[in-house]
Amino acid sequence: MTRTLWHNWADTCRITPTRIATPTSTAEVVAEVRAAAAAGSRIRMVGSGHSFTDIAATDGTLLSPAALASVRSVDLAAGRATVEAGMRLCDLNETLAAHGAALTNMGDIAVQTLAGATQTGTHGTGRASASLAAQIQQLALVLADGSVVTCSRDEDPDLFDAARAGLGAFGVVTAITMAVEPAFLLHARETPMPLGEVLERLEELRTTNDHFEFFWFPHTERTITKRNNRVPGPARPLSAFRAWLDDEFLSNSVFEVVNRMARRLPRLIPAINQISARALTAREYVDVSYRVFTSPRRVKFVEMEYAIPVEHLPDVLHDMRAVFASSRHRISFPVEVRFAPADDVWLSPGYGRESAYVAVHVYQGCPWQEYFADLEAIFTAAAGRPHWGKMHTRTLSYLDKVYPRLRDALEVRERVDPHRRFTNAYLDRVWGE
User: Fold this and answer.
1) Dihedral pair phi/psi, residue 373, rounded to 5°
2) Who contacts 287 (Cβ-Cβ below 8 Å, separation ≥6)?
3) Residue 383 region, left (φ>0) first, then alpha (ψ -120 to 50), else beta?
4) What pLDDT digit, counting tens, does each position of 16-39 carry?
5) At what angle do helices 313-325 and 369-381 cross, to 10 degrees?
6) Distance between first and last Cα of the chain
7) How far apart are CA 387 and CA 363, in angstroms?
8) Nearest to 164 by CA among 343, 2, 328
9) How far is CA 117 from CA 124, 131, 144, 331, 379, in A?
10) pTM for the full model?
11) CB neighbour list of residue 397: distance below 8 Å, 6 or more residues apart
């Protein structure tokens, strides 16, 4: 029998699982888990493949969530929606909008599955909210023995706290109940700003805006800042032409060509970045929240991201400046900086502290290992926590120091998956087994 190859979006992970199954119900997930247990095999549920690490990989049974992708209920009065694990965020946004509802916050890519995004700690930027996992009210899981359980703050709260951003290690997530609220509009302001000014005004910018982030172009002192704030209306969306010009033509088509040129002629990258930074001019519009939060991302790359204590951000960026000034690396992709309040999700990079998320990217096909290693040393010196779905080299000896509830989560794992039915090479690496 020919075994099917699976690979992720960035093509940084390629696997050939023993079996790929597409369950259409919770009962079929249960049957797959029990069959894997009977065969002594491991089993994982994959998402849309937008993680850069091998977090979803398995040498056993790989479950596709494609047929578990519906909204079971939306109760706007109660502020909750129950969604199957495999529903993509872009589809969820449209369905919620049809009910007059929206998620409070989200990241800038919307093609991930809801379960994949929450299990890896995916987040947006925000003064009061950021992490998708922190918006979970209830989880439905199939445990390693095939039992079906639900957990929440009131029902098995330890499992809930461990499994909300659980890396797929505590069970197969089949449905998630998310907090939702009435649909709202955001006033988006995108403005070029020198990096020095951003750092001087950092406290003001991140605390006086509902959502603030910025993109810094390496080898320059140029940034693009994004400030998104709730407004009552009216909506003033971008024209169809301006949206196409900025988000499709410049940010995808032209950016792809620019990066291909930079990959061939890296010595030109500082000059290219100067031009790229100037090409993205100021713009302002008002639109429904999910259209402001999310953007199309078609240019492929490899990414590393760390959450660092927000007070350490200026020093971290100073040290990154020195790396770029050393000419050791030529980097064409902007550095992305976002902000998040403290949350209570045990395995969230934002657990218990205000964080600045610093994301670095390398265009597909370009060497990234040494660049990421140099910056990872800066991030870990500031007690940074890696995004679980993005490249990093941390193991239990380090993670145990920066995640106060990691040992509690591992105790829950011992209870619900003592035979490590849901483990894989990635989990063995980060949690030391």
Assistant:
1) -65, -45
2) 185, 186, 188, 235, 236, 237, 238
3) left
4) 999 999 999 999 999 999 999 999
5) 150
6) 32
7) 19
8) 343
9) 11, 10, 21, 27, 23
10) 0.96
11) 432
